[in-house]
Amino acid sequence: MAKPTIPQGTRDFGPEVVRKRTYILHTIKTVFELYGFQPLETPAMENLDTLMGKYGEEGDKLIFKILNNGLDNPEKEKQVREEFEKVLQGKNTKGITERALKYDLTIPFARFVAMNHQQLHFPFKRYQVQPVWRADRPQKGRYREFYQCDADVVGSQSLLNEVELASIYHEVFTRLGLNGYELRINSRNILAALAEICGGADKLTDITVAIDKLDKIGLEKVKEELVQRGLNSSQVSIIEEYLGIRGSNPEILSGLSKLIDNSKTGKKGIDELSYLSSQLASGQLHLVIDPTLARGLNYYTGIIFEAKAPAGVKMGSIGGGGRYDDLTGLFGVPNIPGVGISFGVDRIYDVLEELQLFPADVHVGTQLLFFNLGEAESKKAFELLQQLRQRGIRGELYHEVAKFDKQFKYAEKKHIPFIVIVGEKELATQTCTIKELATGRQQSVSFTDLKHHNF
RNA sequence: GUGGUUGUAGCUCAGCUGGUUAGAGCAUCAGAUUGUGGUUCUGAGGGUCGCCGGUUCGAACCCGGUCAGCCACCCCA
Q1: How far is A81 from A344, CA to CA, in rounded Å?
Q2: How far apart are CA A428 and CA A433, in angstroms?
Q3: What is the arithmetic mean of pLDDT over A377-389?
Q4: Whole-number Cα distances in Å, A277 to A134, A318, A337, A349
Q5: Any idea which nucleotide's C1' is nearest the CA of A61?
Q6: Contact call for residues A341 and A305 (beta carbons, < 8 A)
Q7: A432 nearest nt, CA–C1'
């Protein structure tokens, strides 16, 4: 029998890891709820039609397709072979595959809203935490199965939603102890205005894709890429001037005004950014207006967000999002605008690990362990244990009579903070001995008092 | 999808220019220790050297293929 394996790019999560991940996810969900967001879950698989063409050409290639059943039916052999020929030419065909694993949470959400918009009360605020799948080649921080953690508001144009979402980022990162995080914002309208000035709205995608790489490849390479993408030298120098806008938020706003204020779209973008920064200026939010922030996704139309790990941690974005004006339009229901954010759970995990920000008690599952020291002893211990469980205290009785040494080690391995000894002496005196492992402190408590004892 | 790199015990790794029975530390189990863990000491178990094939008298080592991990690119979370 060959050793079992798991599919490429997938992971098992052991108890210790699950506890840490749960801590992160619980924190995020709690904050979502605090802001009035409601939970939603959608199926692991969607109809292929729902997903295809929504993520661009590259995205389509990375969708995990599910093979239809019954392809081996001899009666259909000829038809199946013909259909498969089409697959070899790069076309998708319902004869071979008509379902796929979901690629993100946004498109399934849009599909859900399009299907149910008559029943929903707007604005509809939902959060969703589920795995998604991509047929990408795995590498550092990238997996074929990973969790996304999204919150979106649909059915409202109000910028107050952006304010709320920015506050959610702040609240979550603060609760996780990531005080040095940075929330960068920009507006797609600013970028659109820049494209206008550079002589063509059709250049928007080329410009955003190139600018998005600034952090990684530097100014010179970005300029090269812009030229490659068909921009002339005067257009490139306008973009260079734009990328050179730096300083405090007010300074950046005035810099932007000088460059693009006579564009109507540009003015709208500046208004959005100044509204957001003024609304949030009073708090401790680390809000930074960043003209170089672009984000690859094409469907964004207004404010865009990107959350960065504290400086010094070699980790880029730990969250992102933005406003889209017409997501459900793809599914035949126009005019439902929305704005959403996403948390990168795996990356946040790595950052918390690196900065040692997981709480010390994150591993504590079982709170106390009763030692098993004989038949009569364990019978009494079990009775006491059941009383404590009634109170909601998580406890265990060691599964068999064993030496102290073994039972201690079991408690240590499971990070159980307290052990309770009920042995011959304790039975005689109707008391038990409670020991706190971390400190070695020990105390004697009567069987009747144990019920109310605080651990 | 393209390219690079690694694969030896549960884990981290050593293993000389190819040479007889493949090693260490940690972990596990047992004992020192029959009511007090973390330390120490003693001993034991555990490997088809990722898998398949080739070269050779002889392969963990060389060659080809394959699978998996890691890294970079494309793209993205």
Answers
A1: 42
A2: 13
A3: 95
A4: 36, 21, 22, 29
A5: B1
A6: yes
A7: B35
- Name the closest residue (CA) to the C1' of nucleotide B77: A344
In this complex, the answer to whether residue A15 has its CB under 7 A from any atom of chain B, a nucleic strand, is no
User: Strand B closer than 7 Å to the CB of A102?
Assistant: no
Instruction: Mark residues 241-280 of chain A whose C-beta is closer than 7 A to nucleic acid strand B.
Output: none
Nucleotide closest in space to A377 (CA vs C1'): B35
**Tokens representing A116?**
């149910």
Compute the CA torsion angle A331, A335, A338, A344 (nearest 10 deg).
20
State residue A69's pLDDT score: 86
Query: A147-194: per-residue pLDDT in tens?
Result: 999 999 999 999 999 999 999 999 999 999 998 899 999 999 999 899
A423 Cβ within 7 A of any nucleic strand B atom: yes
Nearest to A366 by CA among A444, A324, A290, A418: A418
Q: In chain A, what are the domains?
A: 15-41+103-355 (3.30.930.10), 364-450 (3.40.50.800)
Tell me, what's the pLDDT at A142?
84
Please give residues of chain A from 286 to 305 whose alpha-adjacent beta carbon (CB) lies under 7 Å from any atom of strand B.
295-297
Alpha helices in A35-149 (DSSP H): 48-51, 56-61, 77-88, 106-116
Rounded to 5 degrees, what angle do the CA atoms A147, A153, A157 make? 145
